[in-house]
Amino acid sequence: xxxxxxxxxxxxxxxxxxxGQTDVSLALTSHEDINSAVxxxxxxxxxxxxxxPLQRCALLAKExxxxxxxxxxxxxxxLNFGTWEGRLWNDIDRTEEAKQWFxxxxxxxxxxxxxxxxxxxxxxxxxxxxxxxxxxxSVVIVTHGGVIRAIHSIVNSISPIEAFxxxxxxxxxxxxxxxxx
Length: 181
Description:
181 residues; alpha/beta; Rossmann fold; 5-stranded mixed β-sheet
């Protein structure tokens, strides 16, 4: 199966804000940004669009789908940063909780949030179900940078640390082949 992974476009959040699963609005340039992302998908043959339900992904998914089936799945939401959501990373970095989390973000959970391993587990569940139910050879997945890196880690059997080397810009489209193990 071919996965076309599309990251949402730029948000209206201030630079350096932690917003994970907070349903933030898109930047003022969203119309142009969405049009550019849709253009990158014009020549792709796909059966369905899967998307995070957060509006920054859902709005883009609707445009990319061009009337095809769109399925919203909570497992495609960004990492849940818990009480850090809506705060600036510069303020979060100073806390003892953040210092512990950055030492081992894979296993440590954000306060009232989740760890990166928990994110990988929910994304792996989505991918397993996708292989089981989707009969077509390719799909578009509109989601977030952390989820795209988790998919990269799962599909290519690499560590999360290696997956974070993958550059994922706003509105960027990536293609990956996913085979059952």
